[in-house]
Amino acid sequence: MKLNKYTSVAVALLFGFGLSGHAQTKQWTLEECVRYALENNITIKLTELDLKSAAIDKKSALGNFLPAVNASASHSWNVGLNQNITTGLLENQTTQYSSVGATVGVDLYKGLQNQNTFRRAKLSIIASQYQLVKMQEDISLNVASAFLQILSNKEDLKVKKEQLLIDEKRLARSEEMVNAGTIPRGDLFDLKATVATDKQNIAVSENNLLISKLSLAQLLQLKEFADFDVIDDTKITDENNILAQTPIEIYNKAKETRTELKLAQTNLEIAEKSVTIAKGAYQPTLSAFYNFNTRASYSDIITGSTLNTANPTTQIGFVEGTNQAVLQNNYSRVLGGPAPIFDQFNDNKGQSFGLQLSVPIFNGFATRNNVERSKVSLEKSKIDLEQKSLDLQRNVYTAFTDARAALNTYEAATVTLEARQQAYNYAKEKYDVGLMNSFDFTQAQTLLTNAQSEVIRTKYDYMFKIKILEFYFGIPIVPIITK
């Protein structure tokens, strides 16, 4: 059942990758993988969009220094009982009006909130840049880890195939010896089981290799990864002699170069600016304004008057003593069409300008709460910076200890392999002359295979631990990330 499980996974992955033994695949280097990931990884693209958003916020903050200019225009119809602006009387009529206006306002003083908001926006851009660099560094580490895992699985598969080849030759030779009556037939059964186990181990190793390739291909966001492969002769050594440094020296260097500390420090400065901005709301606001407006009417206007011939006079009183009537001439209004609209706009225009002072007195503790909230965020930023420093110190010492232990483990595994190889050679000599049975020889062979696998594992573990330690010392995975 276990063999069937591994075989099904291998078949599924083979179909997924569409591997062809006749196709020549491109072999990627570690630097090519990192470069491609930095250009195409989705997480990095999202972080780049955050940087663009921060740049837009800076433009918005700069716009707070500029005047606010607004223009307006309207045209209205009044239907029904309305006051006739010509006669001053209420009449059932339909009138039309057009009006045009413009307003300009600018803040002269706002508690320095605009200045501090602009400074905070510039800090936000710096923080977004640090966040982008940190994301690039994290992706580079992940790519390096996945890359080395492929190399490790490749070497492991190579060892398993070489072991299968050796066991198949032993099986063929043992069949000849059984036919010749040199060894018992039971030894032949043990060898057949060993060959079957080798094939099962190869299936498992092929699965591991395909899965590791798929993991790296997905990390690179490759659209076509059917023939994805990496170059085999990648060597990562302690060429910078990083283990010659002390942990405190690496930590001091990391405090100067690590992006997470720079990001935490910038976030602290942003929080300080936020407190200053919130306190600025306690201060008065002085602004200047200018308003312009004009209007035009489409109603008839009085252009003159003429004597009312039907009723030329009206008595308005009499002379005391003589009772002589006092008369007044009656005139009729002469109406004409409205003046040209642009003439009306010119005649009816009006302007106003001035200064406006607003002094905050009480707003339901809103300003006070904003200040307190900003202070809380500031304290959180201080604690975060301190925590980042502690985390960095712990990570550096852990990375140094891990790298040193990985080196010792690799060296010990190498010594063990040499001893297991000698033991295997001695067992083979005894087995060839019939002084060792098949079971004991298989045990010696298994111990050799395990030693070979352990050397492979410890070698690539050491290589990755060295890259992590160099990473904290300010040496990038590949020299392509710019801070």
TrEMBL record:
Keywords: Cell outer membrane, Membrane, Signal, Transmembrane, Transmembrane beta strand, Transport
Highest taxon in the source lineage: Bacteria
A Pfam family hit: OEP
Gene3D superfamilies in UniProt: Outer membrane efflux proteins (OEP) (1.20.1600.10)
SUPFAM superfamilies cross-referenced by the UniProt entry: Outer membrane efflux proteins (OEP)
Cross-referenced InterPro entries: OMP_efflux (IPR003423), TolC-like (IPR051906)
Keyword Iron: no
Location in or out of the cell: Cell outer membrane
Stretch forming the signal peptide: 1-23
Family: Belongs to the outer membrane factor (OMF) (TC 1.B.17) family.
Protein name (Swiss-Prot/TrEMBL): TolC family protein
Organism: Flavobacterium procerum
